[in-house]
Amino acid sequence: MADFNQIVYVLMPVSLVGAVLNWSSFYSIRKLASFNHSFGVLSANQALADAMHSTVFLLYFCPMLLLDQPTMKHYSHICGYLLLLAYELSVLTHLAISLNRFISVWFPLFYERAFSVRKTKVFIFVLWMYNATSATVLYENFCHFYFDDKIGFLTFSNSDLCSFIGWYGDFLKNCFYVSIVICLDVLTVYGVRRLSKKLQSGMTDAALKKMSSRDRRFLKQTLIQGFVFMLELVTYFVVPTYFTNDWIVFFGTSFAWVTTHRDNMQSRDP
Q1: G-protein coupled receptors family 1 profile domain: which residues (predicted)?
Q2: pLDDT digits (tens, 9 = 90+) for 59-83
Q3: Whole-model pTM?
Q4: How many of the other CB atoms lie within 10 Å of CB of 64?
Q5: How far is C-alpha 120 from the chain's CA centre?
Q6: CA distance to 11, 43, 117, 180, 230, per residue, from 95 (Å)
Q7: Could you tell me the CATH superfamily of domain 4-260?
Q8: Is the distance from CB of 270 to CB of 29 less than 8 angstroms?
């Protein structure tokens, strides 16, 4: 495996930037009164999940490699568990945000009843409980996601059950979630454009142009985010199978994973 110190020197700045950006986003959203609504609460939760993900990389994974600490490597499955917990919480919150926007556009009357701040907070609590329970059962009881010194990145334990959990419980499941996110966001953009056509008679050319530009920007952002999420999932599972170069494996696994969560805040308006 490539020199772990060199890997840390690449990974640590990205982790630091991700931690700072996401903790700052979380703090700002919590403090700003303009975010005191369902979408703001969900955005804060995603910022928190991404901040946790980057922080675990920064404070555990990087020191573990830099110090070559055997005790930390022995308990690296705890690091893996926390990373998967934060990652899946981020993906599920991403899905909830997309659903939030979709319903606000297509079912505005239902949205007011279903997405109050109180109900959103209850939903987030349930999301945390579900995610913590499933992650504990899958990644602590049945299988470990740990750092393998031989290959130099986090991987599932070598057993048929862990291979099954890694493929179906992690890879395909999260690919499914990301696919739903893309579909919901595309439908949201279509709904906004459909609504804007009904309002065209009362809008100026400048307002129409601004809305059209915003729609294109949001659609582009949606497709790019979906592509990046999907690419990260594919590279983490596929690259180590077909490549042996240490740096290719590193950039396709650990680096891709932490970079995806560097600053994953959503655009506020579709």
Answers
A1: 18-239
A2: 999 999 888 889 999 999 999 999 9
A3: 0.83
A4: 20
A5: 19
A6: 27, 11, 17, 7, 14
A7: Rhodopsin 7-helix transmembrane proteins (1.20.1070.10)
A8: no
